[in-house]
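Loading example: each entry is read as three labelled lines plus one structure line.
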Amino acid sequence: MSQDPSTYNGGSAVAMVGKDCVAIASDLRLGQQSLGLSNDFEKIFHYGHVFLGLTGLATDVMSVHEDLRKKTNLYKMKEQREIEPKSFANLISSSLYKRRFGPWFVGPIVAGLNSHSGKPFICGFDYIGCIDFAKDFIVAGTASEQLFGMCESLYEPNLEPEDLFETISQALLNAVDRDALSGWGAVVYVITKDKVVKRFLKTRQD
Amino acid sequence: MAGLTFDNYKRNQYLVNQAGFKPPKATSTGTTIVGCRFKNGVVIAADTRATTGPIVADKNCEKLHQIAPKIWCAGAGTAADTEMVTQLISSNLELHSLYMNREPRVVSAMQMLKQHLFRYQGYVGAYLIVAGVDPTGPHLFSVQAHGSTDVGYYMSLGSGSLAAIAVLERDWREEMTKKEAMDLCATAIQAGIFNDLGSGSNVDMCVMETGKDAQLYRNYLTPNVREQKQRNYKFARGTTAVLKKDVFDLVDVVREDEVPVGPSDAMETD
Amino acid sequence: MDAAIGIRVNDGVIVATSRACTRSITILKPDDDKTRILNEHNILAYTGTSGDTTQFADYIQGNMQLYSMREGVDLNSKGIASYIRHELATSLRSRSPYQVNILLAGLDKGDAPFLSNIDYMGTRVDLPYAAHGYAAFYVMSLFDRHYRPDMTLKDGMKLLKMCKAELDERFPVVFKGFQVKVVDKEGIHSSELE
C-alpha cells in the first residue's frame, strides 16, 4: 500500500492571467484513492479579495485554510485593510517554510488583483513554500502534468474576462478528464476590478 | 533557524513509515550556477529553469538572490532552502552592518551561511555561490549544504556544474577584464543550459565591481525564446456549459448618471 | 472489517453500525454498539482500531456533555464536526494517532438534518449519505442510484435494508447485521431492521 499523500485524495487547480483580470479554477472531487466520496469539495478559498487554490492531502487543505483564515483576520485587524496578493503569497511561503521539516502536504496557488493598481497577480508554491512567480498560468494537483500541457497550448496573453473563462475552463476540463483522481465537477472564478463571477461547470461524472 | 517548527515531523514519519505514504517532491533548482572574478570585481551567473522531478515547474525563475546591495548569491539545490536561507542571512547581515556601522562584508555573509547550514547537517539543501565587493575588495566563495566553503577565482555548482566547469577550465585566464569575465560566465551557463537536463532557458547575471553599484542583468541572454504561435485555440464564448453562476459585485452602484461628453465640458480631475 | 453507514433524509438522519466486534479471525461480540450519544440531537458512529475507537468516542462524548453543562446549550452539529476534525487532525501529529473514522449524525440546531464524514486524518466532508470501511465500496453505488433528496425516514430505512441485502449477498465477511439509530425532531431512538 505505497501511496503519496499528495495523491491520496486527488484534486487539481489552475490559475490564469487575462487583461485586467485573473481566473482561478478547481475540480470538486474528494476521494480516498479510487473511492469517490464527495462531488462538492471546493478547493478555492478567498481571504478578502485574494483567492487561493489548495490541492493535496484534504485534511491539510482544511488545516492550512483554517490557519490562513486566522492569520489574514489578524492581519486585517492590525492593518485595518485586507491583505494584498503579493503579501499573501509571502505569508503562505513563510507559513509553509516554517514547517520545512514537518510539512503540510499541499500545493497552493494564489490569484488576485492588487486593490490599488488593479494589476493581476498569480503565483504557485511547492509544499515547503518555494514561490513560483509566473506571468501567464499556474497549475497544481494530481492533474498538474496534464494542466501544464493544456495551458501551454491553449493559453494566450491579454484575454478578456469572457474569453479567459472559456480558456481556463477548457484547460481544466480536458486535463482532469485524463486524470482518474480529479474531476467530478468544476468551479471557476473570474476576478475583475468590480466583480467576481463564480461558475459551476457541467462536467463528466466518471 | 529561528522559528522553524517540527510539529508535523512525527506525524509525517508516521505517515511515511506506518501508513505507507511516499514523501513528496520539492521544487529543486536542478541548476547551473557559476562565478568568476575579474580585475576589479566579480561576476556570478545562473540559468533560469526550476524543476519538480522531470517536470519544468518554472521556465524563467530567479536564482540570483540579493544578500546586501553589493553582495549577491546564486543558489542551487532545494529551491525553497536557497530562497529562505538567503532571505534570513540577508536580514541578519543588514542588522549586523547597522550595528557595526560598516558596509557588510562578503566573508560575514559566508560565515553566517556556513554556520547556519552546518547546524542543519545538510538537511537544509542549499548550495550557494556567494560573491560581492566590500571595503576589502572583491570576493568569490562557494558554500555547500553541509557547511563547507571554498574560495576561488572561478567556480561552478549544481547539476550543470560539470558542463560549466569544462568551459571555465578551458577559457579562464588571470586578470580578466569585466567584459571577458561576463562572456566567460555566459558561455559556461549556456554549456549547462544545453548539455544538462536540469538546467535550461535563459542566462541571468550579476556584476559587482569595486566602487560601483552592483548590476543585475535579468535575462542577460535569452537563447530559448518560444516560437510565435502559428494558430490560436480561442474558444467561442459559450462553449463551456455552466450549471450555476453567482456574481459577487465588489462595488455598489449607488447612482448612475449620464455624463455628457463634449469639448465644452472640462474634465473633472479630483 | 467493521462498517458504519449514514443516511441523511428530510426529517432526520439514520446511522447503522455493524454489530460484530472482531479481533483477527474471531468475532468477540455479536451485539456491539459502535455509537455514542453526544447530546439530545447528535450521535457519533465510529469504526477503526479497537481501543482507539472507544477511547476517542468517550473523549468526545465527555467533552460534549461538559460543553452542555458549562454553556447551558448543546453544541450544534457543525460545531461538533469542526471540533472532532480538529481533534483528529491534531492527534495525527502526535506519537500515536487515534485510528478512528467518524460519522456524525444529528439535527443541526435541533432542526436541519446533518451528516458528516470524518476520517482518521481529519478529512471532513458533509454528505447526504456516507459509509466507512469496505462496506462503502458496496453501498455507495446503491446510494448513488436510489438516494433522493426528498426521502423520509421510512424511505431511508428501506434504502438501508437494500444495503444490508447487498452486503449479505456480496460481502464475504460476517458482520452480524446492523445496529440502527435514528435522530429526528423527537430526539434519538434505536430502531430495528426487521
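Chain C has four helices and twelve strands.
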